[in-house]
Amino acid sequence: LANYKNIFFEDPYFMKSIGNTLLFMIIDIPIVIIGGLLLASVFNNRKLKGANFFRTATFLPYITIPVAIGVLFSLFFDGNSGTVNKLLSGIGLIKENINFLGTTSLSRMTVILMICWKYIGYHMIFFNAGISGISTELYEAADVDGATSFTKFTKITIPLLKPIIEYLVIMNIIWGFQLFDEPKVLFSSWTSSVGSNSLVGGPLKSCLTAIWYIYDTTFGSQMR
Fold this sequence. Notes:
Largest sheet: none
Low-confidence stretches: 190-197
Distance between the termini: 17 Å
Shape: globular
Mean pLDDT: 90
Order of helices and strands: HHHHHHHHHHH
Helix content: 55-70%
Oligomer: single chain
Radius of gyration: 21 Å
């Protein structure tokens, strides 16, 4: 029982890691599901030229290894020489570099953006397959009844995709609790300009996830 007492009442970071993990899930899950559904609907338009190219480009981040994604985003959002800072400075939007990885709110936004960028293509592929399997007769019947595109989307497409949506929500919850590689590499990369005390969990442990904390407690700085 002393272990549970230590975790819930004495450990300063356990509940914070759980809270961070839940925060990422609450924000990310609606974005990737709604975004994937909208992208699938757009790319299923037969009038859209290059739809296959856009599908492939959107799906590529999902099959990219997590370490590469973490390094890539550290290059983009580095506070000293990051691509985003150079771009914003070049067009005159900022005068001083923004420390994306050194502040609590911006570091969390960076992790959220990274997760969405990786997984939205995965959701798009599932929704694309589901939409392709819906009989065109349903849409033709709706056209006869004078239904608008929005009505067909909300009354036909979404209800018939309900099993896929349920599956993706479950998978996102699993992935959310497994989140580890990308944020760890992001804040541990040699390109990061954050201080050494911020590497584990980001600034003020604002990006410390449950699995990351388990790893750090067992094999990392605590070696327990």
